[in-house]
């Protein structure tokens, strides 16, 4: 089991996650929202935003899992070959 992150590292990770989330929302908003003349989103815009967000989050999760796996393998290799 991993040791807990120190507070400074926790803040850095949180900051990176928030930036990623904001960048994702901005990107999906630019791709999906066609008009700012209405106070509500059109159904097509809502569907587009939902699909964009789900697809992007799925991609980020897969990338995160790949990095975690690579890190684990690297850690095991370094322990086996001190």
UniProtKB/TrEMBL annotation:
Mitochondrial intermembrane chaperone that participates in the import and insertion of some multi-pass transmembrane proteins into the mitochondrial inner membrane. Also required for the transfer of beta-barrel precursors from the TOM complex to the sorting and assembly machinery (SAM complex) of the outer membrane. Acts as a chaperone-like protein that protects the hydrophobic precursors from aggregation and guide them through the mitochondrial intermembrane space. It comes from the Eukaryota. GO terms for cellular component: mitochondrial inner membrane. Heterohexamer. The twin CX3C motif contains 4 conserved Cys residues that form 2 disulfide bonds in the mitochondrial intermembrane space. One of its GO terms (biological process) is protein transport. InterPro entries: Mito_inner_translocase_sub, Tim10-like, Tim10-like_dom_sf. Residues 9-68 form the Tim10-like domain. It holds the Pfam family zf-Tim10_DDP. One of its GO terms (molecular function) is metal ion binding. Keywords: Chaperone, Disulfide bond, Membrane, Metal-binding, Mitochondrion, Mitochondrion inner membrane, Protein transport, Translocation, Transport, Zinc. It is a peripheral membrane protein. It is found in: Mitochondrion inner membrane. The keyword Zinc applies. Belongs to the small Tim family. This is Mitochondrial import inner membrane translocase subunit.
């Amino acid at each position: 089991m991993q040791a807990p992150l120190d507070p400074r590292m926790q803040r850095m990770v949180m900051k990176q996650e928030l930036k990623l989330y904001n960048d994702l929302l901005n990107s999906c908003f630019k791709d999906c929202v066609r008009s700012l003349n209405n106070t509500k989103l059109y159904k097509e815009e809502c569907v587009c935003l939902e699909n964009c967000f789900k697809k992007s989050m799925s991609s980020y999760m897969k990338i995160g899992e790949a990095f975690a796996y690579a890190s684990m393998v690297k850690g095991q290799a370094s322990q086996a070959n001190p």
